[in-house]
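Team,

Forwarding the record for the chain on the shared tracking sheet. I've put the sequence and predicted structure together so nobody has to dig through attachments.
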Amino acid sequence: MWLLQSTKANPLPLAEALLTAKEKILPCAVCGFFATESDCEICDDATRDDLVLCVVEQATDILPLERSGAFRGRYHCLGGKLSPLDRVSPEDLRIPPLIRRIEAAPQEIEVILALGSDVEGEATANYLAEILRGRNCRLTRIAQGLPAGGGLEHADGLTLLRAMQGRRSL
């Protein structure tokens, strides 16, 4: 609104930057993250663990994981999640490249399903677990439960159930 209303505003540089980004940023050929060449910086990073692959719904899901510093493996973006109501089927997702990456691994890898806990995310995780079972991988799912600093009084039933199921020894 400020760009539209202010006489000091100069929206042209912002518009040009957006156009440049749209033209030059494309999905990484390997993982689906943002790239300006065929591969992204993450795929080009030789210090990453090749034996751990984190599967996410969208490229933007990688950003908080990278900011946290909690994960130093490889990623695979599906490009969405199964959603029959939105007409998103397995054929619409980047599942075949995921299978190829797993089968090309020199030894068994861990595949972490870091998908949302909504109905579509759960359906996608269950579908992937079924088609990846018995392949060159060990499947895990990210833990779900209470956020840091969150209290029990504000948690819904499903969050509490998952927090209880995902408890660990101290």
